[in-house]
Amino acid sequence: MLFTILRSILRQARRQPLYLALNVLGLGLGMAVCLVLTLQVRYEYSFNATIPDAAHVLRLDSHLMFPGSAPQEYADVPFIAFPFLRTDFPQIVDTTRYETEDYQLHNGDRSISADAAMVDPSFFNVIALPLEHGDPRSALSRPDAIVLSADTAQALFGTTDVLGRTLTTDHEGHRSSQTVTGVLARASGPVTIAPDALTPFPSDEMQKPQFTRWGSSSGNIFLHVRSEADRTAIARNLTRFVIDHASGTANDDSSEGVHPERRFALSLVSLRETHFNDLHVVGGDDATDRSVVNILALIGALALLLAVLNAINLATARSGLRAREVAIRKTLGATRKALFVQFVGEAIASTAIGGALALALCEIALPFTAALTGTTLHMDYGFTLPFLLCVVLLTGLACGIYPALVLSSYQPAHVLAATRMPSGGRGATRLRNGLVIVQFAFAVAFAICTLVVNRQAHFMQSQDLGFARDGILISSDIMTSDIAKQRAILEALRHTPGVVSASLSELTPHIDNRHRFNVTPVGPQREDIHVLGDTVVGDYATTYRPRMLAGRWFDSSHGEDDSPGDEAFHKSSGKTWNVVLNRTAVSRLGFASPESAIGTPLKSGPVMLRVIGVMEDMRFVSARDDVSPQITFNSTAALDYPHASVRFSGVPENIMKTRLKSAWDPVFPDDPTSFRTVQDRMSTFYITEQRRGWLFSIASGIAIFIACLGLYGLASFTALRRTHEVGIRKALGATTHNVLTLMLGDFLRPVLLACVMAAFPALFVMRSWLSGFHQRIALSWLDFAPVVLVTLLIAALTVLGQTLRLARAEPARALRAE
């Protein structure tokens, strides 16, 4: 039987090479798309899977719920909760705190900037990251210990065998000598926890507010439990935990007030969930939208389905051409079962050839896909080959069963007595048109979704941010609270050639410093709202050019415009300081208009504030997030780890960056920085959608191409069948134009119907996806018109050659065709 199948395929390749090429190419493309997207989806779902027992390593998240603001989830939690967890929850095996900071690591003349994590000695008991060198049980037991990643060790020492070597660390201006006690192994899969270094918390770090106040946080707490039941038990009692430990008097700065559960809550997220969950967490810019990943999986499955439908359509369209073969073989004694097995075997063999093509295409496409999506995709043959084998078998059966049933059912007497090959009648024609409709419906739905995703990504990239983004360069954090150094760098930047203005601020595009507090309008029955605070120094208005809606900006001639620094602010009871609100704060505070807020007193604890100006919302966050109500202060005091921002003009960007670095290095020789544009800093907000849009574009293009392969093959066989009909029509007076219009209409009618059918589900899916964005494009039916027109044009061009040749056929030749 195998020999018969192979001989039959070779005979088809000689007699009908077009059919075999279209079939194998369609199957190969469909399986290649399925394979690549399966590897992409597998990658996204495998985050932290290589960390031992990751499902039982839980991160404690905080939820803030304040009047006038939507509830927000944060991965950061107050470290003041840490000592109570093991006491209140016996289900916890161990706990650790985890706070990332910028460190400078020095080994002789080698220096690098590192994203280091300060942790507790119990870290490896909770998150068992494998070590290439060192003992995890003792690696963090010394106060001067430091564990390096393999890449960091290689960069600093030129090797990973560095146990016992010493290096100098610089953090927030504090230099110390630390000993390497371990080297992290390179992760064998994608992980969300990949620090450049791990070090125990320095003793002076414990005095910071996040260790002593419930309202302050800057890092994570991780718990290790034994089972899902333990997780459920802990989650059920977290509200009681907050009430027991975060309660206090209304004036107690270290607590969350009399009823902390009304404004503060805790929840648990396992390490296996963080990659998707953090999309809804403030600051979770590296997270992935699970729905988009699921859509990619669906696209992979549908691309394979399109290839199957394409193969079935081609096989049923040409089934009549093999009718006499079937009749003769049955006359010579072949059974229906034997013919069925042969035809299914031929389909599996053709699919296997397509599978080999798919594997080659996947090898070529994976590096491109990895670069496109910013991932580390690679070909895992241990997974790919068994998966591809299953796909080939299932696809071959799906492609072969129905055509085999049709072919093996032909009756020899009817076929041999007929003057024409059997066509299957109207039922077969409806089936083939139905397959074309399904193919193009899927392809057009892909294309519509692609259009919407790309439009949203472009919108996020180009939307109005409420300030003049072009011509601004922003530094990384200034890791010092020394006012003399802050003023020195501000002056150095101001006097750099090409700089128009310079300022310091705690908030910049892509916010990473979130100082929040409560304010209340003065008056009866007014509820407080939670606001985001920013303090600026220098020529901020000239640098960012915020749009003022009412009132004025800060002016050095007004003494009350100069508020004290963060530490002295809440101690300045009895004084009034001038502030500027954003539009959202005005709305949340209940003012009817920006003008009505001017001059209004506000209260924050014992401190009085007066509104002198209202500016448009400045969007420093993703389009997914709501802009927070914000209060801006002006100060000449030291700021809490601010950023420097400069506006430049008349100088190329790369030259300006070099000049700014030259001005920076003398002031902070041990704290190098990189100046980045607003677009660079905010690119993480839209790059994921942009990359997914590119991937969708390629997938939808391939889907339409597969559908067109089927349409082309169908047009070829249909043209062959209708040659006699065209001869009769032309003999009765039909012109070439009449025939061409008729044939194109017959081919494009199912395509147009497919476009209509695709629009409704695509609209529903995209509206659901866009609902996750606070700022988003508007959808209308007119947006889908370009996709429909382009699809119809491509389909028309696909069948035009066959149709035009048929329409031009001479009647005499056409009538002799059969």
What does the model show?
By secondary structure, this protein is an alpha+beta fold. A 6-stranded mixed beta barrel has the order 3-4-9-6-8-7. Helix 9 (290-317) runs parallel beside helix 21 (678-721), helix 15 (483-494) runs antiparallel to helix 20 (653-667) and helix 23 (736-770) packs antiparallel against helix 24. The protein is elongated, with a radius of gyration of 34 Å. The two termini are 34 Å apart. The model has no long low-confidence stretch (mean pLDDT 83). It holds the Pfam family FtsX. The chain crosses the membrane at residues 20-39, 295-317, 338-366, 386-410, 431-453, 694-720, 747-766, 778-800. Residues 21-240 form the MacB-like periplasmic core domain.
Q: Look at the structure and give the mean pLDDT.
A: 83
Number of strands: 24
Radius of gyration over alpha carbons? 34 Å
Largest sheet: 6 strands, mixed, barrel
Strand content: 15-25%
Residue runs with pLDDT of under 50 for 5 or more positions:
none
Q: State the distance separating the first and last CA atoms.
A: 34 Å
Q: How many H/I helical runs?
A: 25
Helix content estimate: 40-55%
The strands making up the biggest β-sheet line up spatially as 3-4-9-6-8-7
Structural class: alpha+beta
InterPro entries: ABC3_permease_C, MacB_PCD, Macrolide_Exporter_MacB
Membrane topology: Multi-pass membrane protein
Subcellular location: Cell membrane
Protein name: ABC transporter permease
